[in-house]
Amino acid sequence: MKANFLLLFFLLFYSCGNEKNVQPNVVLIYLDDLGYGDVSSYELGTLETPNIDKIANGGIRFTNGYASSATCSPSRYALMTGTYPWRNKRAKIITGGNLIIDESEMTLPKMFKSLGYETGVVGKWHLGLGKGGPVDYNSLIKPGPNEVGFDHSYIMADTQDRVPTVYIENGNVVNLDPNDPIEINFGNDDYGLPSGTKNPELLTMKWHHGHNKAIVNGVPRIGYMKGGEKAKWSDIDMADEFINKAKEYLDTVKDKPFFLFYSLQQPHVPRTPHPRFEGTSGMGPRGDVIKEADWCIGEMYDYLEENGILENTIIIISSDNGPVLNDGYYDDAVEKLGDHTPAGNLRGGKYSLYEAGTRVPFITYWKGKIKPQVSDEVVTQIDFLNSFSSLLGSDTKSKDGVDLSSVFFENSGKGRNELVIEATSRTAFRQNNWVMIPPYNLPATNPRVNIELGNSKDYLLFNLDEDISQQNDLSKSNPEKLNEMIARYDEILGNNKKKAEKLELE
Predict the structure, then answer these.
(1) Same domain (yes/no): 478, 456
(2) pLDDT digits (tens, 9 = 90+) for 253-266
(3) Staple partner for 218: which of 146, 204, 437, 455, CB 3.0–4.6 Å?
(4) Do the beta carbons of residue 209 and residue 331 sit within 8 Å?
């Protein structure tokens, strides 16, 4: 009954303004390691992002928008499934690993497909590929994006700093020469080829930690790779490649309702801006690739507008976790930062339980339907599945998602009142404006990335209304609130509490 009513609503709603699609298209733009202060419309940093700002200023800019985790693979799992990543022991940072989404799980693209949508993903995947062992990149790779709901996929498997440095389209490596098969190894076997440790003279980018094995385009990577020479990507052309492939895909589906997951690689390392963006930020490669990403988002916006589908398209912009400067390479991210504050006024960053680990830029846009505003409501990427399901009249629900469709798309309603956040096997709890971090007897800071991790031998308690930068621990002065939050946190996690693992960066 609800589905029929909402379908009738959409038919009436669009009859005057759009005859092509009854259902709104959705473009979900997901950046990688973009911080809360990296978007200029948040007015916390000095970097300019005019194209993102245009969308933010025309939609809802959320000041309390969260990824589920302070690292990428778990956040992407939660976004796709509407389930907390700490419920899935495989939802960890992937390095050449298998698919962490079970093929039987409900996913965001599956929900859209059930309603007649075309579904596509272009860009970074990093949710694993295959099952039951090492991935064979020389044959059809499955399961992958196509097996969990996407009709079309054009991806890189993991991250730009990991092998294999190739694109994969619908399960097949692009431009692979069968006479030059790909071999991958993340152990000690380097196939006798040049590496970052053995051949520093071949590098155009110096490694700081971990990224010192296979050399591709002068950049040392995580892991060793042999073969696949014709299939290797050009790092400096990656942004152009992904936006062009996204447009090509939309060309084939724009006359139908579609869901596109446009997953940018920026500003994750290695930061390799196209030469036309070099020096444009004044902040070195990290700032330059954010300028590049902003251009890509402008290209997507212009495409939708030029093809007459902008007004019938919901655009969402967010990031998989908070910022990091030195994440494995020497690229002047620290030295040329200047007055810019990637984390804004938040403490921590990527890998951290403090706010900067998971509070990220979060924007929803629907031209003519959403009234521009700034919202302080607490929202999360976990809630996309339930919210779109409700908006479109589906009965599909996820395990941990909340229906925030009115908050996201209607300028009304209330956000979440509680949320469990995660960072590399550790969890914390937000309830209204309070945050509780349990004790973790682990290093307080990771020296490789110089980020405070939120680890303490004692409980930590913060009131974000009064102390958004989390400088004043109130656990001793407000034991009643602390105990109340511990009890609720324990109730939510149940038997899912895990032994915290020390952060080991490659």
Answers:
(1) yes
(2) 999 999 999 999 99
(3) 204
(4) no
